[in-house]
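Issue: ligand-bound run for adenosine-5'-triphosphate - logging full I/O for the record.

Environment: standard queue, default settings, no custom constraints.

Inputs:
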Amino acid sequence: MLSTLRLLDFRCFPTLDLQVPPGGAVLTGDNAQGKTSILEAICLLVRLHSPRTHRMATLARFGSGGFGIAGDPWQSERQVRHSREGLFLKADDEARASQSSYLEDGGLIVWMGNEDLDLVRGPGEGRRRYLDFIGSQLSTDYRRSASRYRQALRAKNLLLKQARPRDAELLAYEEILVEHGTVVMRLRAQLVADLSPLAATAQRDISGKDEPLTLHYLPASGPDLRESMLQARERETRLRQAVVGPHRDELDLRVHGMPASQFASEGQQRTLALSLKLAQGQLLTLRRGAPPIYLLDDIFGELDPSRRNALMHHLPANAQKWITTTHLDWLEETPELRELVRYRLDSGHVKDIPI
Ligand SMILES: Nc1ncnc2c1ncn2[C@@H]1O[C@H](COP(=O)(O)OP(=O)(O)OP(=O)(O)O)[C@@H](O)[C@H]1O
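Outputs:
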């Protein structure tokens, strides 16, 4: 958890200095006042990841040359600075040379937002990102192999775009893809097996019905990735892109044995999206023995009271929660959150609201 957060030239904030109690805070205000940007800054500080962009440069306040975020997640003083010279990372007064070394002892995050519905309805890429975000928080091997796989895939796809890709070069990249893709496949299979019962329990509790949810990992290759690549060589050359491997894996979601994207009702799909994120939080807590920080972006106002209460019941009481909302009326009906500190945001300025 975090007790202080400081921003410099981050999104709409020239500067910001927030003190937050262990329970967390509710951030309220009209649209476009900077609420989500604060959650985004926390996600970057803890995991070097923004759910909204892959390009760090877009996070710097317009007209500034870079941004800074500082805070103390889990009592470790951390700093993330980005400028034209690149990314500068520090933990406990020590510079960290790489993202990997910064993340090694980094904290844990669950991000929940309205866009989570895309996990159920959207393309497979969102479900792969969901698995990667959890896997990368739990395992250095996952993080390293997913990153090396991505780099080698980009290089192989560039080669395949050429008129006559050289076999030796293709084979060299495929060696890397096989080595790291096999690690990612093994860890994803384990991850899905661990998440499945947790998500099923959350689905049952939030819906209040017997709504059996199952998660299955569907790899986009046979068990032997090298063999699958060999078999796909002619097709890949024709299509000029890599078509087998973890970048095409699927996470199959079923309710009552039927594909959720096609057969589940909108309400069931919304519950399922919540269940996936709650399962993530539970798994992180189980594996690390301490709960993650929950960043809840504008979801409470949209939930009916029974789903809201079921969601609250599932969030660990001792976890820090950062909640954004445009209106506070629902808060009075949610006893667990009534005591949280409240801040009102107005064009990048923050005011305390008495409870
Ligand atoms: N790099 C940037 N520099 C300056 N301002 C930015 C930058 N990126 C985004 N903004 C602006 O920051 C403001 C706050 O955005 P943010 O998404 O945090 O608002 P919000 O309060 O969460 O809104 P909503 O309730 O609509 O989700 C917006 O006006 C946005 O246009």
